[in-house]
Amino acid sequence: MPILNSPFAQLDLIRQPEQQNDPLQAFDAADEYLLKQVAEDGLPADSRLLVLNDSFGALAASLAGHARVTSSGDSFLASLALQKNLARNDLAADAVRFVPASESAEGPFDRVLIRIPKTLALLEEQLIRLQGQLAPGARVMAGAMIKHLPRAAGDLLEKYLGPVQASLAEKKARLLFVTPQDKPHASSPYPTRYTLDTPRLELLNHANVFCREGLDIGTRAFLPHLPRNLGRARVADLGCGNGVLAIASALDNPEAHYTLVDESYMAVQSARDNWQAALGDRPVDIRAGDGLAGQPADSLDVVLCNPPFHQQQVVGDFLAWRMFQQARNALVTGGQLWIVGNRHLGYHAKLKRLFRGVEQVAANPKFVVLKATR
């Protein structure tokens, strides 16, 4: 496993979720470049330092003990990785304070390190919240691998914080140095809302929610085929996003009990708001988590899932396969996993390796809806 060497620490880091023989490492050249630059700038021990979007804790763990570090991001798996990597490297669990992106990190901060996220709406929301949270003379740096650094990221930094200067490239990474200025406080364009006709719902979406501007086409294909007549079934929406699958199902199944799980704190926040708007105080369990990893065995009757096919910029079916395994472990014998997926992903064959029966419920030229029975 590669070791992250920086002027601050030598760390053995792991990604989350863990997988055997993982070919990917928990840090990249942009993390190394940021840490090198912080060291060159100097970091007084009492500095209040904010790290945004630290995928697996590489930045925050490296700087733990060298400053008062707060880390904030929208990924439960990132917060879990930070916890595990602090423990793995004999660092105190409270050496870094983690703040979910659904909440605001309270400054003032002397240093801010930003990993440019895949979703620029998340960056925009974070920059708006940073206004008024910077100490006099604060230094702000953003970093990314060049292939993941859109021009619009620099435009957002300049719009909300101040002038931006780009660094030279180093190992295919680049930094953006921001000179904070006093700017009029901006109001956030988030959350956004859109309306569904069937069922009739207005859905609220915080900045980092997948398909924030409208219903994604996979979910649109799934909605007409959700299971009915569930009685008092225990149903989970795995990777719930804004909660639309669970809410639509719950409207048709008034006695069923629902659990909604997503690894995005902003998705969970959106799902809570949307459930309350559509279903009032009807009991529900909505949580940020590593899928159904903490769900007891034999505790669910039905799992609904529109699985993701990427983690940040990494595309693959590892997360989907893991969700299918989690669903199988949580379902009772005879319980059902209902999914929608792109035809070309071949989920039918994968599900057959885990479930005793797999049936195609519906299909269109792009998507299939499958029901797998444990």
What would you say about this model in short?
Helix content is about 25%, strand content about 30%. The chain contains ten helices and 20 strands.
CATH class of the largest domain: Alpha Beta
Assign the CATH superfamily of the largest domain: Vaccinia Virus protein VP39
Q: What is the count of distinct domains?
A: 2
Order of helices and strands: EEHEHEHEEHEHEEEEHEHEHEEEEHEHEE
Number of strands: 20
Main sheet record: 7 strands, mixed
Whole-number radius of gyration? 22 Å
Biggest sheet, strands in spatial order?
A: 5-4-3-6-7-9-8
Low-confidence stretches: 310-315
**Count of helical regions:** 10
Structural class: alpha/beta
| DSSP strand content | 25-35%
The helix content is 25-40%
* CATH architectural arrangement of the largest domain: 3-Layer(aba) Sandwich
The CA-CA distance between the termini, in Å, is 36 Å
Mean pLDDT equals: 94
Q: What is the fold named in CATH at topology level of the largest domain? A: Rossmann fold
What would you call the shape? Answer: globular
Pfam families: MTS, RLMG_N
Subcellular location: Cytoplasm
Family: Belongs to the methyltransferase superfamily. RlmG family.
Domain RlmG N-terminal: 2-181
Structure description:
This protein is of the alpha/beta class. It folds into two domains: 3-178, 3-Layer(aba) Sandwich (Rossmann fold), CATH 3.40.50.150; 192-373, Rossmann fold (3-Layer(aba) Sandwich). 27% of the residues lie in helices and 30% in strands. It has a seven-stranded mixed sheet with strand order 5-4-3-6-7-9-8, sandwiched between helices. Strands 14-13-12-15-18-20-19 form a seven-stranded mixed sheet. Helix 4 runs parallel beside helix 5. The longest helix has 15 residues, at 265-279. The radius of gyration is 22 Å and the shape is globular. The protein starts with a strand and ends with a strand. Mean pLDDT is 94; it is low at 310-315. GO terms for molecular function: methyltransferase activity.
